[in-house]
Amino acid sequence: MESIIPIIAVILMLWFGLWLYILVPARMAESRNRSTVGWVLLSLIFSPILAILFLWVLGQKPA
C-alpha cells in the first residue's frame, strides 16, 4: 500500500501539469476565437500563467 502513494502523487502532478499548460490556454483561446495551437505553444515556451493573463486581457478576437 505504501508504494502506491508516490504513484498516485506523480499521476496527480502530471494531470495538473497537463491541465495548466495545455487545457486551460487551449480552452480559453478557443472560446475567444484565437489560435489554440499558438497559445498552447506560447504557454509551453514561456509560462501558462502569462498566456492565460494575455488571453484574459486581449478578450475576444475582432471579426
TrEMBL record:
Transmembrane regions listed in the UniProt entry: 6-24, 36-58
Keyword list, A-Z: Membrane, Transmembrane, Transmembrane helix
Name assigned to this protein: Uncharacterized protein YqhQ
Organism for this UniProt entry: Yoonia ponticola
